[in-house]
Automatic annotation (TrEMBL):
Taxonomic lineage: Eukaryota, Metazoa, Chordata, Craniata, Vertebrata
TM spans (from-to): 39-60, 66-88, 100-121, 159-178
Membrane topology value: Multi-pass membrane protein
Name of the protein: Uncharacterized protein
N-terminal signal peptide: none
Alphabetic keyword roster: Membrane, Transmembrane, Transmembrane helix
Length: 203
């Protein structure tokens, strides 16, 4: 605790621990911003939008497991929410937002893994097969089913790739947030215990 006397006989009592805590909070803000939470959050939002937009053609051919369970739509929505929270964390840069972002990033990673399982199962259950030998090659109906399956698999492969990208982004962001939270958790507890610095005026 530091004490200083001004010329007007005002005594300033400053708690050095409070000052250190403030410095640590500023360091936390710089650390979060250094971790590029905003950039990663924008990337997550973009991936979520791409997943939803690219999945729309899947409504045209016959429905498979991915469309039946709505995998692209709920996974894409979670990706967008996760990215929005990461962007907000970069803006506010405090322990509360950091903890919320860490939780949502973990949920986003789990959703990515679950979506990948659905995509792999769907691609395995619906392989591309050549047109039947009995089919007349001069008719349009001969290759329609083959082309529909091939198109559907191409779209799902793209969605699978986007989901892998989101899983990687979530892993990087989660690792950075976990490091920041681990470094500064002790100082959050100190913030609740330390009273603010006071000013004493002498008569």
């Amino acid at each position: 605790m530091a004490v200083s006397v001004n010329r007007d006989m005002t005594v300033m009592v400053e708690d050095t621990t409070v000052r250190k805590l403030t410095d640590r909070q500023e360091a936390l803000k710089r650390s979060i911003q250094k971790g590029e939470a905003k950039v990663l959050g924008v990337s997550q939002v973009m991936v979520g939008l791409l997943v939803i937009l690219y999945s729309l053609p899947l409504l045209i051919p016959a429905f498979t497991e991915v469309v039946t369970f709505g995998v692209p739509w709920w996974s894409g929505t979670v990706f967008i929410i996760t990215g929005a929270v990461a962007i907000a964390t970069d803006k506010h840069s405090n322990m509360k937002f950091l903890s919320v972002c860490l939780v949502t990033t973990g949920i986003g990673l789990l959703v990515s893994i679950l979506a990948l399982i659905f995509y792999f199962i769907d691609l395995y259950n619906h392989p591309t097969s050549p047109p039947s030998k009995d089919c007349n090659p001069h008719t349009e109906d001969c290759r329609t089913e083959h082309l529909a399956v091939a198109f559907s698999r191409g779209v799902k492969s793209s969605l699978l790739l986007f989901t892998i990208v989101h899983a990687v982004i979530s892993s990087i962001l989660g690792y950075n947030l976990y490091k920041d939270r681990k470094c500064f958790t002790d100082y959050t507890t100190m913030d609740q215990l330390i009273p603010p610095s006071s000013t004493i005026e002498l008569n």
